[in-house]
Amino acid sequence: MKVGDLSVYIDMSLLKPFSKLPALNAATILLVEREERFQQNLADALVGDTTVTVNVRLAKSLPLPMDNEESRPRIDLVVFIINLTSELSLKSAEASLKYLDPGYFLGKVCFLATNARNTSVPTERLDAMRKLAASLHCPLLFAEDQTPDGVNSATERLLTVLKVAAGLVPTATALYLSSLTRCTIPPDIDQPSFE
Amino acid sequence: MDDFGRRLLQRLVRRTPAQALKATLGKWERLTVAQRQSVDFTQPKVAVMEQLVAIFEENGWTVKHITELEMINYMENANRGMWHAFQMTDPKDDANAVEMMQFKEQFKSHLSELVRHVSVKIKKHTDEALWIRIAWGDSYSPPNHLKPTYVVHHLQTPYVFVTSLNSKQKPFLVQALILSTGYQGIKDANLSGQKLTAIRDLLMKQYQQIFPSKYNSPLTEKNETVSNPHIEREQSEHASKRLQMACEAFGDGIVPQLQTAVYKLETKFRGDANTNRTMTKREGPFRCLVKFASTNLLESFRECASSGIASTPVSPLLSSITLKGRNYFVVTENGLPSSQT
Amino acid sequence: MLNMEQHRGSAVRTPINGVPVQKRSKSYRLSYGSCLGAASRFGFTPTLTARRFSTTRRVSKLHNVKEKINADQLALLVKMEWKLSYVTPLYQFRHTKLKSYSRQLSVFITAEKQQGLAVDVDRVQNSYRVSFSLVHGMAGTDDAETVLIQVHSKHMFAKKDEPQKLIWSGWLTCMNGNSDYLGSLPKDFICLPLFGSSGPEDLTSLVQSWFKQNFDCCIGPLEISHTSLQWLAALWTNCHNEDNIQHLKLIWSLPVAPPLQITYTVDPQDAWDLWGSVRKGSGAEKVREEEEPGKIIDIDEVMSFMQGLNSHFYKHFRLDLSSGSLKEVATSLGSAKYNGKIKISNSKYMITTLTLLTEGALLKMPI
């Protein structure tokens, strides 16, 4: 394989935010989750929204298969669902990130962490999660995946972000919203401090 | 009834739940309907015990009869203790022609020639399996009925399942089996478990197997859970492929309920060659023992593979459990399938 | 899955944003444990002051605790498996009043046990004997002295002259606690954050509620985190050239239905070789040659060690252990379980282990 071919291949596998035209009064959200556990529940709740047509695409990881390229609508928001009890879950999301066009990081990516309150989550992993989100200027949401209430509130938050990202909210843009909601890390995350 | 008989009966009563005990007595042909109905299983075990003792004494029944009862009980509740599988090898021409009566006679006579004091009882179970109860003694002591060995053999198959056998008794059993069946050797099948039915089904391949095929199997459709036209799985093909491979390796539907699998690895260190050059270049094996445990091991493995926790295609080490019907493996550098390197 | 539910339950019981304890000054309300605030609903908490596990550890080889600590006390410490809890600083606890505490706690336990029972008064008074004692030599420079508590009792139907038996024991310790943190405590507080107990659980909860009532502290279960377990695996393996560790056993649990448990037991010499190969800037031989006491171990080395073990496993079984969680680590030097049970079988390595656990306890405190 020639170098030229390789670059084409990589280019094709990148998911781009503006390569397709948007559909009328519709928004498409891509849920990426290694475990494929929470995404189905979340998807069922998301499509229940009555104000706009919500399309949900589910994936285990990126890149997305080429075969679906044609039928796939423009994706307005990419959500990485990360189960903090699993190291693999975070590693897999990190690996998927490189298949996103940089344009997505202007407000069209968000992280949704589950099980953050579980005692088996090492603080180091939570730190790594926060650093990742902060370095990419993305919002980091925490969700409870075991209860209907938790699913509903996660759905509501995602819908709010999604509608803005899809350009359905006249007064806001994705970039504007993300500058308000993006994850920040405290300056002393790495060193112990006693004031 | 003597003290020993009492102890034996007491142990049987104590170990068996009331309902199972009732079922066991129902299967025992010696009891009359009236006798059977007279036992009240709702009362405490001590009282049940006394009632049974009375019945036994009334009929003049002894240890022999209690062991009969114990055997029926064991056959109905085979999932206790640890069962080990053996496989007989080198069949003679008449291996498939051995009949039950012939086997019974020969086995009994061979074993009593080998061991001075031994008590053997053989019974045919409803599923055609032969159940053998052996109480071992030696030159000085009578057969110990408190620690019997149970052997299950399906005639016309090379498989034998054994529980509670110690290493001293093993050569005698092996000898008697070889002499009374049409085989010339016997080897450890490296398969053990608490459920006799599970290890039998695994060895005899009596579970729903999925074979590799070019065409999509019905499994693929099963996996597609299209709940809503607005929800689309991008990688549904990958998912169904994973499920297909998981089922090929570990079976479909209800799988034999194994509890453990053990691997003794004596292979070279196989970490990441880039990050750990010292170790990968090191001479000699990296010795470790890996034990997998679950209430249903094959089901756990199947989910590992279908959910992607285990990469597909499934590691030959794991698929060997069903393929070879084993759950104990010693893996050395030579024995390792080449795809691993 | 069931396990996770339980753990979540325990996490929810833990106050998240700090318990309002008026007596305490602001200065240390901002310190330890506020990392729990990280679990708040949003990824940004402006006032978050994070306190993390140390990323390096000094392994001093000269812990001759045998010479310092009373032999009977040491024998007890290494004999039992201890269930761990964390304890917030004790208000007005005095090491000089241990005798009076012994009396008070005996009375408390007896009274609680007696509730609703009509028993012979003379007998009851003797039925629980509590003794508090100091464990000399088990503390770092800034730490408060370790306290050992033992409860003796007789069987209900024991004869008069039969001696009382030890039925419960526990200890409170602080081993090399962060000196900045200890220094920030007001004068009336004593910090003994790590509580170990061994014996019937009803007694454990009685002792704990007595502490809560008398010293205005919070006590809660302490898990040994994934990271701590990985640290212990490395720290223990690091001792193999001095004391044979016999084996390195790691128990993992994978989240599938039904749950899959994997016990990974590595030959001690091979584990040691792997450990040597991940030590920075040194092959296995070099580490062995160096005899200087007090070596620094870095978290990166611990992680590469675990990574090495996991990738060897993956190459054979194509199963990724990192999708699950580490539940237990054991060698002949001791064993540690995620549910907060620890056994330290060799006194030589007690200090290192307790230092790690003290750090974990300080992190867990909901201040």
Automatic annotation (TrEMBL), chain A:
Its main location: nucleus. It comes from the Eukaryota. It is found in: Chromosome, Centromere; Nucleus. One of its GO terms (cellular component) is chromosome, centromeric region. Keywords: Centromere, Chromosome, Nucleus. It holds the Pfam family CENP-M. InterPro entries: Centromere_Cenp-M (IPR020987), P-loop_NTPase (IPR027417). Transmembrane segments: none annotated. PANTHER family: CENTROMERE PROTEIN M (PTHR34436). This is Centromere protein M. It comes from Betta splendens. The lineage of its organism: Eukaryota, Metazoa, Chordata, Craniata, Vertebrata.
From TrEMBL, chain B:
GO terms for biological process: CENP-A containing chromatin assembly; chromosome segregation. The keyword Membrane does not apply. This is Centromere protein N. One of its GO terms (cellular component) is chromosome, centromeric region. PANTHER family: CENTROMERE PROTEIN N. InterPro entries: CENP-NAC/CAD_complex, Chl4/mis15/CENP-N. Transmembrane segments: none annotated. It is found in: Chromosome, Centromere; Nucleus. Keywords: Centromere, Chromosome, Nucleus. The keyword Nucleus applies. Pfam families: CENP-N.
UniProtKB/TrEMBL annotation, chain C:
GO terms for cellular component: chromosome, centromeric region; nucleus. It is found in: Chromosome, Centromere; Nucleus. Keywords: Centromere, Chromosome, Nucleus. Pfam families: CENP-L. Belongs to the CENP-L/IML3 family. PANTHER family: CENTROMERE PROTEIN L (PTHR31740). This is Centromere protein L. The gene is cenpl.
